[in-house]
Design a protein that fits this description.
Number of domains: 1
Strand content: 15-25%
Mean pLDDT: 86
Distance between the termini: 50 Å
Order of helices and strands: EHEHHEE
Helix content: 25-40%
Structural class: alpha+beta
Radius of gyration: 17 Å
Shape: extended
Low-confidence stretches: none
Length: 89
């Protein structure tokens, strides 16, 4: 039996799945419908479970070296109304 997996979608979930499968000894191919990727200049927030995933992939140190912690996070609804503020300790 061959350990090959096809993954539909080259977003964060698909690429993470490919890394985990590789660590488990599976060969994977990622298929994405878009023909190009653009640099968005955005950011993303990692909660504790996200950091745990990075640790399991062996990527936590590299990500930490190239990131910073937010002092606070504000969440707005679609009408630009402030919904919550979360402050870091």
């Amino acid at each position: 039996m061959e350990n090959k997996v096809l993954i539909s979608g080259g977003g964060i979930a698909g690429l993470t799945m490919a890394l985990f499968l590789n660590k488990a000894g599976y060969e994977s191919k990622v298929f994405e419908q878009h023909t190009f990727f653009e640099e968005a200049g955005g950011n993303f927030f990692l909660n504790k479970s996200g950091v745990r995933v990075l640790k399991n992939l062996g990527l936590a140190d590299a990500i930490k070296e190239n990131s910073h912690s937010a002092k606070q996070t504000k969440v707005y609804d679609v009408h630009d109304r402030l919904m919550s503020i979360q402050r870091s300790n």
